[in-house]
Amino acid sequence: MIQTSASSKILTLIKSAAAAAVLPVLFIYIMIAKPDYKIMNGLAHVVLPVANVIGDVITWPIRVIGDMFQDLHELSSLRAENAELRVRLDEALANKNACEVSIAENKKMLAEIGVARNSPYPTVIADVIHNHRALHHNTFMINRGIKDGIMPGMVVVSPSNQFAGVITDSAYGTARVRAVTDSDTNIAVRIAGYEVYGFLSGNGSATPTIGFFSDPNFRAAADLELITSNISGVLPAGIYVGRMKNHTDVAVLQPSSLSRVIVLKFDGNSVYK
To answer: Do the Cβ atoms of 255 and 231 come closer than 8 Å?
Structure first.
């Protein structure tokens, strides 16, 4: 009974499909053999929708495959465009980094030029080529020497005009600088804004100490600034040295932070060299 019912349904579907297929043929026959426009107009309302449905059913796989190929083409185009945008973004970031480096270097050079122009002494700009630290000693080498007029005793400052050290030895094209943190450093300083003098002594650590104030009643405190004093005739006066962290320790320039320095051609007699 079930098989008979299924067979009937299949037969009905076949008849419907055959009738749907015959309708377009009949419509074409009438158009050619007996062009009766009333009949044609009546059949058109039936044949054309059926033909559209049959056409949609027949072309559905083709349209699906076509849509898939179009989607794949668009996806490939998007990937290619994305790859190109990534390349452009990398180039833009590289240019941005190069610009930032150039701007920073330009600011540094302007600062160096400012120090050189405002200095009452002839100056030489040098690069730090080696930093040496051992036990309580801290020195560094620069790429300027006797051929550039660099002699022992000359003062070395940072591009921001902070005291960095003193030249101890000079060769033809290089010179050695005793850093402010070196244990052999002992320089005359003054409390900025006060007529109070003392001596800053290096101890090999990051924070030298200060002692022997000219005013025994003066009490040192944190955040007081120290500048060089010329009372000993060794250093030019007024160079910023550092800031006091407490009543004895001073925060000074660390040699490891230096890549370029400025040498002031100064001697004890204030003679230009």
So the answer is: no
